[in-house]
UniProtKB/TrEMBL annotation:
GO terms for biological process: hydrogen peroxide catabolic process; response to oxidative stress. Disulfide bonds join C36-C135, C69-C93, C141-C334, C220-C245. Heme b binds at H213. It comes from Colocasia esculenta. Binds 1 heme b (iron(II)-protoporphyrin IX) group per subunit. Binds 2 calcium ions per subunit. PANTHER family: PEROXIDASE 5, PEROXIDASE 72-RELATED. Removal of H(2)O(2), oxidation of toxic reductants, biosynthesis and degradation of lignin, suberization, auxin catabolism, response to environmental stresses such as wounding, pathogen attack and oxidative stress. This is Peroxidase. Its EC number is 1.11.1.7. Residues 26-338 form the Plant heme peroxidase family profile domain. Residues 1-25 form the signal peptide.
């Protein structure tokens, strides 16, 4: 009797948790139609101005959305098809990345993967202030990141897609989780596949999303080991990269992730991998005799296949357990909790 009562209790508590949890909240593309009809046009305009000023900003903004979505622990009651009831630490697109250090906030900007690397925060501030000027307190910073990433891709010749909206902003951040949850350039193929799979993304999604490295720059410290000690690297390419990335010093010296067309979103990133000219070890690992070789080869031959998969994967990534409904808040400034 006592046991069955306890069971009933457990089920009741579990049900309450499940129904109050916002983890299953749905995003919709027309979320701001009534509350801020000019939101998307306003974001788009400010993003385009920023990229026109500095082309690399397109890359930096896409990366911010990625680094936002992959981080932020939150206990959430998850009902999946395979495992009916399971507690998971959810991580999601909640603008946690944008919070600065504060008495109760340990900023994710200082996580190894972001420190002196994640950039574009001033552009996000600028976009946010323009949106606040037309509809104060309505549009979340998390949604701004999602829209900016889409607009950035389109501006530099990449695919476009319909962005789903309705994310809310977190009131917390976690530097430790960021370090734990974000991929590292030293990760093996298995580690990358499993990290993305923790977020409900397939190996194919992972390869497509890595194609974002068709634009943007990386610092010497992230590819030094590969260009001096790597085995799976084109010798001429390694020599060229060594010129501006000495074996000691120059950690911050930049090189393009795609040596052919660093400012245009195209399939050259994958063509480079076929020639062992991936800059990061974690890029080349996608084409190194493992299970993802065929996907890389396909994308290198077929831009529309890459674009279609990239767009779909960005939408899936943007869907990673967002805060919705009454969870979280709409920050007034993306850098601080209200
Ligand atoms: C698969 C695992 C990934 C790893 C290990 C990785 C790692 C890195 C590293 C080390 C850099 C250079 C950072 C620096 O030196 O400052 C970088 C840059 C970049 N990453 Fe990734 N990345 C991954 C996936 C992704 C994904 C999924 C996206 C977006 C969808 C992305 C977008 C970018 C962009 C656009 C840049 C250039 C940023 C800029 O120029 O400001 N990366 N990444
Ligand atoms: C390229 O990919 C698209 C979209 O997946 C597909 O419809 C098309 O047949 C492919 N083209 C070639 C030449 O394989």
């Amino acid at each position: 009797m006592a046991t069955s009562l306890r069971l009933v209790c457990f089920v009741a508590v579990a049900w309450l948790l499940a129904s109050s949890s916002q983890c299953q909240g749905q995003l919709t593309s027309d979320f701001y139609h009534a509350t801020c009809p000019r939101a998307l046009a306003t974001i788009r305009k400010a993003v385009r101005v920023a990229i026109a000023r500095e082309r690399r900003m397109a890359a930096s903004l896409i990366r911010l959305h990625f680094h936002d979505c992959f981080v932020q622990a939150r206990l959430c009651f998850h009902i999946s098809h395979r495992i009916p009831y399971k507690f998971i630490l959810s991580i999601g697109c909640d603008a946690s990345l944008l919070l600065d250090n504060a008495p109760t906030i340990v900023s994710e900007k200082n996580a190894i993967q972001n420190f002196r690397s994640a950039r574009g925060f001033e552009v996000v501030d600028e976009v946010k202030s323009r949106v606040e000027a037309i509809c104060p307190g309505v549009v979340s910073c998390a949604d701004i990141l999602a829209v900016a990433a889409r607009d950035a891709s389109e501006y530099v010749g990449g695919p476009k897609w319909t962005v789903k909206l309705g994310r809310r902003d977190s009131t917390t951040a976690s530097k430790d989780r960021a370090e734990n949850d974000l991929p590292k350039f030293t990760d093996s193929l298995d580690q990358l596949i499993s990290l993305f799979s923790d977020n409900g993304l397939s190996a194919r999604d992972m390869v497509a999303l890595s194609g974002a490295h068709t634009i943007g720059q990386a610092a010497c410290v992230t590819f030094r080991e590969r260009i001096y000690d790597g085995t799976n690297i084109d010798a001429g390419f390694a020599k060229t990269r060594q010129r501006r990335c000495p074996s000691v010093g120059g950690n911050g010296n930049l090189a393009p992730l795609d040596l052919v067309t660093p400012n245009s979103f195209d399939e050259n990133f994958f063509k480079n991998l076929l020639q062992k000219k991936g800059l990061l070890a974690s890029d080349q690992v996608l084409f190194s005799g493992g299970s993802t070789d065929a996907i890389v080869a396909e994308y290198s031959r077929n831009r529309s296949s890459f674009f279609r998969d990239f767009a779909a994967a960005m939408v899936r990534m943007g869907d990673i357990l967002p805060l919705t409904g009454t969870s979280g808040q709409i920050r007034g400034s993306c850098r601080v909790v209200n």
